[in-house]
Amino acid sequence: MSFKAGKKLSLSGINFSGKSEAAIAELFTKTLEDGMHGVCMSPYEEGQEPGDTLTEVQIRRRLTILQPYTKWIRSFSCTEGNELVAKVARELGIKTMVGAWLGSDEEKNEKEIAGLIQLAKDGYVDIAAVGNEVLYRGDLSEAALLAHIREVRDAIPVNIPVGYVDAYYEFTDHPNIVDACDVILANCYPYWEKCSYEYSLVYMKQMYQKAIQAAQGKKVIITETGWPSEGEGLEAAMPSAENAMKYFINAQQWSAAADIELFYFSSFDESWKVGAEGDVGAYWGLWDKEEKLKYV
């Protein structure tokens, strides 16, 4: 290896200048093998999308691939087979952040909330996440979201922390949400804010500090961050395999050195995401859609 992990991590991360893509890939592999705190689950196979029912076979296969590399898994839903993620993960010795997917359909929301409560009561939840970016999307009012957070908090064992996931700046704008949560679950994406790779680690640190400032002394967990390997760029933010590897390495080394709990987005490429994000949406995984590790 032409340079060593952890030896040149500065404010902006490792200095990769002059390093070949093969050398970067070697460090990526070592960083992955050293282990992640957490990773976001991508359960949908090619041809599937949210609304399809997931099978235990596919969930077990994908979690078995991830098991050697992560302590925690984050799921996004408690219905349509997604509830099996927490159950299989716990069987494999992986801790769980279990999410209830909330949107504008209150009937579906109640099914998600009921599923999360049941999983928690059955002992499959280490952290309960009530909703993901519903304020950012405008799917729910603050009052409606607060009611769901309080419903879960009142229903599940007191030793299970309850939080809500959203972009880091939403917690500054919604102190009542912070007050209702036990833990602050912040998504931090320099890419989506059009930041070039060169400044991305510095930018993520700033995002994290803004969440800390809003958190009223509560723990902040970075629930999503990542960099796509392909697709059309977003101004200065350019997808590429090399940038994705370098971002992963810097994010993992910084979070480990600073003792910050971080969930990487994402585990596997999922083609359905192009509908919401354009072509770049299909390439956020560490593994490709065929479940092969991408950067080797």
Protein model, in words:
With 296 residues, the chain is an alpha/beta fold. The chain has one domain: Glycosidases (TIM Barrel, Alpha-Beta Barrel), CATH 3.20.20. The chain has 11 helices and 8 strands. The protein has an 8-stranded parallel β-sheet. The radius of gyration is 18 Å and the shape is globular. It starts with 20 loop residues before the first helix and ends in a 19-residue tail after the last helix.
Task: Give the secondary structure arrangement, pairings included.
Blueprint (H helix, E strand, L loop, with lengths): L20 H14 L1 E5 L15 H11 L3 E5 L8 H9 L3 E6 L5 H16 L5 E6 L1 H4 L4 H14 L6 E6 L2 H4 L1 H6 L2 E5 L12 H15 L5 E5 L16 H18 L4 E2 L9 H4 L19
Parallel strand pairs: 1-2, 1-8, 2-3, 3-4, 4-5, 5-6, 6-7
Radius of gyration based on Cα positions? 18 Å
Distance between the termini: 14 Å
CATH fold name:
TIM Barrel
| Sheet with the most strands: spatial strand order | 7-6-5-4-3-2-1-8
In short:
By secondary structure, the protein is of the alpha/beta class. The protein contains eleven helices and eight strands.
Write out key terms for the chains shown.
TIM Barrel, alpha/beta, disordered N terminus, 296 residues, 8 strands, eight-stranded parallel beta sheet
